[in-house]
Amino acid sequence: MSATNPPIRILIVDDHPLLREGLSSLIAGQPDMTLVAEAENGEQALRAFRDHQPDITLMDVQMPTMNGIDAITAIRTGFPTARIIVLTTYKGDMQALRAIKAGASGYLLKSMLRKELVETIRSVHAGRRRIAADIATEMAEHVADDELTARECDVLRLVALGSANKEVAARMGISEETVKTHMKNVLTKLGARDRTHAVVVALKRGIIDI
Amino acid sequence: MSATNPPIRILIVDDHPLLREGLSSLIAGQPDMTLVAEAENGEQALRAFRDHQPDITLMDVQMPTMNGIDAITAIRTGFPTARIIVLTTYKGDMQALRAIKAGASGYLLKSMLRKELVETIRSVHAGRRRIAADIATEMAEHVADDELTARECDVLRLVALGSANKEVAARMGISEETVKTHMKNVLTKLGARDRTHAVVVALKRGIIDI
DNA sequence: CCCGGCCTCCCCATTTCGGGGGATTCCAAC
DNA sequence: GTTGGAATCCCCCGAAATGGGGAGGCCGGG
């Protein structure tokens, strides 16, 4: 943070123009930071990263065209040392977990204070990691849980759309008995009391989207 | 919009500091607008409105302490001519409907372009109404639908939390048969295929929250 | 090579739902 | 004062979901 160091070069990726504006003006007020590019979806982010190779990328998760998780994976495939901070509205512990597994160094909420954000940028730039406390807490509550398998997620998604077991079976090309088995596992793993509760829990935790 | 007119006096109400920053810097760039106050929840909004009586209030819906709908109702009880524009992330047609019934003159998404926002501010200040096209479309699809009654919402909320009809009945102090009747009505009104689907539809449309 | 996880399928018994029907009471609005 | 909506309760019945058990095949890591 000494004045002799070059500024932290930052890329912003978010599809909300207003939020980009807010970030941009926040960064403009920090003498040790400079904004090098903006992108409004994952594809643009990839190009912008290649062109500018920023020190820090601030990335939203929900975006059209290419979501933040895929963008993080793609960026870190080409640049394994890229430091990326996810900045999002809350969407459950699973989304955060996926972002971190994809290589994010930070996970923050858009509702946080400006001060915390700039501190996190400096912190991550210095090589540390920073996960918002409430998200860390929620992730910790589920570390011991078995995650849903791909097949179980498929079943649950169809159930969320109103399919009965028999219809799920027909759509997936498997027997109704298999669907029942998957649902039994889902109920157990999510600690849900019935299929409706399971869908609600999965939506809250970011395990499925609708 | 002539330079001789006094500027449009604006109040911002949003719990996201970053978004307030973005709005603030956007307004600062408009010669015919001036920011008179900011608030980060409904209560503060009420006080700020009384103190400053802005021409336009930009209001989020989801906030701690006092939500946007209640804040709109409260403000317009004291100041029936207040012009309020709701600025939110998408949460279903029902939330928009409630905001408009409470007296909002505009309903916009946070993902919109800056240009559209400043145009809407001028438009609403001139006495017109402005609802984002996609929201208007979705609201139009449901104008013919019967809305859920208070009791039906109560039942659906408990169902979403994993209660069986029998348990909903016990919690609400009514008979299971009554719960079944309510659920039948809910399924019909929402066009849902089963209770799980009903909960998902209600969540998407902003009819219930979890 | 063997083990574990995943996916698949099957059986049984009980409970819960969903879709019909109908009925009463209460309150507020016209 | 009648009318209508909301809320309450009741019946029947077939379909669906839940909870318990078991079991075989496949694939990848140790």
From TrEMBL, chains A, B:
GO MF term list: DNA binding
Statement: the UniProt record of this protein carries the keyword Signal: no
Residues annotated as domain HTH luxR-type: 141-206
InterPro entries: CheY-like_superfamily, NreC/VraR/RcsB-like_REC, Sig_transdc_resp-reg_C-effctor, Sig_transdc_resp-reg_receiver, Tscrpt_reg_LuxR_C, WalR-like
Residues with 4-aspartylphosphate modification: 60
GO terms for biological process, alphabetical: phosphorelay signal transduction system; regulation of DNA-templated transcription
Pfam families for this protein: GerE, Response_reg
Residue ranges annotated for the Response regulatory domain, each copy included: 9-125
Keyword tags: DNA-binding, Phosphoprotein
Taxonomic superkingdom: Bacteria
SMART domains: HTH_LUXR (SM00421), REC (SM00448)
PANTHER family attached to this UniProt entry: TWO-COMPONENT RESPONSE REGULATOR (PTHR43214:SF43)
Official protein name in the record: LuxR family transcriptional regulator
Source species: Archangium violaceum Cb vi76
